Amino acid sequence: MKAAVKGLYAVTPDIADTSELLARVEAALSGGASLLQYRNKTAGAALRLVQARALLALCREYHVPLIINDHLELALALDANGLHLGGEDGSVAEARERLGPGKILGISCYDRLDNALSAARAGVSYVAFGSFFPSSLKPGAVRAPLELLRKAKHELKLPVVAIGGITLDNAPQLVAAGADSVAVISALFEAPDVKLAARRFSALFQQRS
Question: How far apart are the first and last CA of the chain?
């Protein structure tokens, strides 16, 4: 499954309790999340494997791609749908070669359009820019201007993902500026009703189309 990168891109929070993680993720998927990225910066290798395997089974039930953050070997071992790399998390060209042409490959480009152009030539499936807004998870993150989304849409023939401090209040600005997808952690998974939050984020893209 190599699905289109659009709509709500759910990114998992750092939760050690796998049952709790699965419950929140299922709520997001049932609410309309179109992609899921497994990202856990605090888990060890054993827990990552357990959680990623369980998430992959759940994502397959909902026909939603599972993207693994950073860990190429884990993505390959599970035959996950794809991989997301940070700006310094490895070679895009190597990742594409090892994943093969049928998998999704994304990269964080922060506020750098030149990085996105290089990544596009190396075979990525999408590029991500941000942080567009202050983020509690990455308070010192580089800030990207909204205009960057417009420039990227003009110069790239790839889906563009916005990330960083995104909420239901500020997401419409990103959609209006051309974001094909918004990657959300806290405003989704810490919401009182995860399913409802997912529906509301997803609806922003349905309104545009």
Answer: 23
What is d(CA 203, CA 205) in angstroms, rounded to the nearest whole number?
5
Return the SS3 of 159: coil
Alpha-carbon span 179 to 159, nearest angstrom: 8
CA 148 to the chain's CA centroid? 18
In 5-80, the DSSP E strands lie at 7-11, 35-38, 66-69
Domain boundaries, the chain: 7-208
Residues tagged active-site: 39, 108, 138
The DSSP bridge partners found for residue 129 are 110, 162
Distance CA 201, CA 172 (A): 9
Write out the chain's pLDDT in tens, 209 residues: 456 899 999 999 999 999 999 999 999 999 999 999 999 999 999 999 999 999 999 999 999 999 999 999 999 999 999 999 997 777 999 999 999 999 999 999 999 999 999 999 999 999 999 999 987 777 777 899 999 999 999 999 999 999 999 999 999 999 999 999 999 999 999 999 999 999 999 999 986 55
Rounded CA-CA distance 145/112 in Å is 10
DSSP-derived letter for residue 180 is: S
Q: Which of 187-199 are b and which e, b meaning 16 or more Cβ less than 10 Å from the residue's Cβ?
A: bbbebeebbebbb
Fold adopted by 7-208: TIM Barrel (3.20.20)
CB atoms within 10 A of CB 136: 9
